[in-house]
Amino acid sequence: MDFQADGQHVIIFLESLQQNITDLCQATPYQLEKIGIEHRSVRLTIYNTMKKHLGIKDLSKVFNDPIHGHIELHPLLVKIIDTPQFQRLRNIKQLGGVYFVYPGASHNRFEHSIGVAYLAGELAKALKVKQPELDITDRDVLCVQIAGLCHDLGHGPFSHFFDGMFMPEASDEEWKHEEASIKMFDYLLKENGLKPVMELYGLEIKNEKENDLVFIKGMIDDTQKKTAQHEQYPGREKEKSFLYEIVSNKETGIDVDKFDYFARDCHHLGIQNNFDHQRFIVFARVCDVNGSKHICSRDKEIENLYDIFHTRHSIHRRACQHKIKMAVEIMIKDALLLADKDPCFQIEISNGNGTSKKIPLSKAKEEMEAYIKLTDQVIERILNSSSDSLKEAREILHRVMTRDLYRCVGQATVVPLDPEKEDNDPISKAFFYRKDKPDKAIPIAESEVVPLDSEKKDNDPVSKAFFYRKDNANKKIPITKSELEKNYKKKKLEEMKKDLRDKLSKHFREDKFEVIDVTLDYGMEDNDPISKAFFYRKDKPDKAIPISKSKVSKLLPEHFSDEILRVYWKNHEGLQGEERKNKEKEIKKFFKTQCKDYGFEIQNAEEDGGNDSQTPVPVNLNL
């Protein structure tokens, strides 16, 4: 009898048995479902028992953040962070072209996203502890954190520059980065096999009633929300609608996304941040507002909340809308538009059948395999290229690197319309005729028109009408008078910009100009951002109340937005010294003349010779 051979077979059998047991112990809930274990609770019980038996531990990770200190993130968040799709954010500057003006503004979307995930969790956990009746679960907290982590996955090169300046000129279609964030999130989960891992951590991704994937996407992009019936949000019941306000609050603008970028941007810019987000989290409560639950703050905190928007205005005025920063971004935009049209400068991706195809920069947002390769490094590719077809784009970027920037040769602030001025009425300059005198033109004064009773809403025939938008044809919406006025002003401003651009090009035939408008506001256009916020009093913590601006301070602004018109002179590089100064003076003088011809009120005008003044020329657009 060959004992040695039999012993060898026994060893092989035992090793095979041990391997099979190990494989079973390491099976995921998804794999357990595949072998016939249908009930989810049973799968999770088996999985957790096996994991405990093997001593397997999923570890969270601690990040040392310069803004929030040492922060600990859930293992699932760590798995998302450790993917190529998320790591791409390391190469996208948070403030875009601001880095060319403020050398300290070198921070990226990567660290901002981690900070938002942390703050989202902190606010959700604080509400859960203070108000257990809200029934906030660990699943809810984790979903909110994932949304905070992934809300900026869709940003293109230089952040808001890509969807705010490049894409509108490269494509006719309306597009915003949140759409790409949803696509990149789906791509991330698919490419890294993370859906089974999400189930492993207790998330529901197949349940139609409470689908966590749908919930997360709804928090990232508000257009994912469906409000057709009782304003219910996908993935959660109406009672938890307040969770959508944590990452991105479209009603008031008070959310953890802003909390992080205020603190982070101010830190890197060297600007004082007067808002304490930790204090907001401490005083935050959920209250009922007309049948819906909203996050509210203590009544005594209202002045601190105004500090949020004052800080936002300060960051935009001093950095994001800085005229030198805008010059840099216009130049980068011009270079990318040239590269976008170059067939040699495209992003190559696989067709899936062994072949490949190339996609231009402006189309990369449709294909995540291409979009993941599109970061700030695109300008390095152009600068380091040797292609003759990219020569002009390369020269523009070389001018950026050598600080030969487009020159700002005119600024004008759009003064708010005076409703008491007669000429603000678009009909005041119109003429009419009567039935008995069809050949005689007559004006009709406002006093001759039968006035509407402003207290009765039904006098406006359009007030009860509904409309739909091009991007959501099945959703009915009302359009208010303020929206019509806003659209009218926007249209008139665009007409004025085009007219000014045409006149500049006609008068200075050899020169190229860019006319842009810049908005400085509190985040809600000309509306008071706090007007939609609700508060609670110490003695009535569950009752939400509004607080009007008049009860806060008489020092608060009357208007919450400014429109600034700027003219940039592009091709001055061929002129030097006195010749350049004289030409610049001539252009500025022409700009001022045009302002007078338009009937603008010019005050505190810039000195002809300077290009560094930050004081714009106030202008009244009697639209």
Map the helices and strands.
Layout: H1 3-25, H2 29-34, H3 40-54, E1 61-65, E2 69-73, H4 75-81, H5 84-87, H6 109-130, H7 138-150, H8 160-170, H9 177-191, H10 195-200, H11 212-220, H12 244-247, H13 256-269, H14 277-283, E3 285-289, E4 292-298, H15 302-320, H16 323-340, E5 347-350, E6 356-359, H17 368-371, H18 378-383, H19 391-401, E7 407-415, E8 432-434, E9 437-442, E10 467-469, E11 472-477, H20 481-507, E12 513-521, E13 535-537, E14 540-545, E15 561-569, H21 577-597, E16 617-620
Parallel strand pairs: 4-13, 7-16
Antiparallel strand pairs: 1-2, 3-4, 5-6, 7-15, 8-9, 10-11, 12-15, 13-14
Helix pairs in contact: 6-7, 6-13, 7-11, 8-16, 13-15, 16-19
Describe it.
Helices cover 42% and strands 14% of the residues. With 623 residues, the chain is of the alpha+beta class. It is built from 21 helices and 16 strands. The N and C termini lie far apart (107 Å). The strands form six sheets. Strands 3-4-13-14 form a four-stranded mixed sheet, with no helix packed on it. Strands 12-15-7-16 form a four-stranded mixed sheet, sandwiched between helices. Strands 1-2 form a two-stranded antiparallel sheet. The longest helix is centred in the C-terminal third of the chain and has 27 residues, at 481-507. The chain has helices spanning 3-25, 29-34, 40-54, 75-81, 84-87, 109-130, 138-150, 160-170, 177-191, 195-200, 212-220, 244-247, 256-269, 277-283, 302-320, 323-340, 368-371, 378-383, 391-401, 481-507, 577-597; strands at residues 61-65, 69-73, 285-289, 292-298, 347-350, 356-359, 407-415, 432-434, 437-442, 467-469, 472-477, 513-521, 535-537, 540-545, 561-569, 617-620.
